[in-house]
Structure formats: structure tokens, C-alpha cells
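Late entry, evening session. Most of the bench is empty. Finally got around to the prediction I had been postponing all week. Sequence below, unchanged from the version circulated by S.P.
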Amino acid sequence: MVAYLCDHCAHTWSRPVEDDLEVYDTVRVDLPDATLYGTAWQVEADRVQVRGTGGDWLLWVERWRVIVY
């Protein structure tokens, strides 16, 4: 589970970490300063390599930040 806290209103919520993530899934990545959309390019136990739409970027992120879209 991933827990979230809104700094502005103190609202909290949680969601499960994706356990069925596969290569080529379309995903959303929630980063502290941005939300990115792309394709899972490589999937490991604790991290995922995400490729941006059109191949604009390639980024490794922690698996808990990735949501199948």
C-alpha cells in the first residue's frame, strides 16, 4: 500500500501498489513535482523504466509511483 497526505487539507488516502504491471502497459507516474504518462519499458521488483509518449524520455522510477492507466 502507498499512503498519501494532502499538505493543504490534511486529507489522507491509500492505494495498493500495482502487482500485475507488465512491459508495454500504459502507465501514469506520480512524481513529487509532476505527473507523467508513458509506457512501462522494463519492469523489476522495485523499479520500472518508463518511456515517454513518442519516445521523448526514458526514466527509472520506484515501482510504487507507477499506476497502470
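Two things to note before I forget:
The first strand starts at residue 2 and ends at 5.
The mean pLDDT is 88.
Will write this up properly tomorrow.
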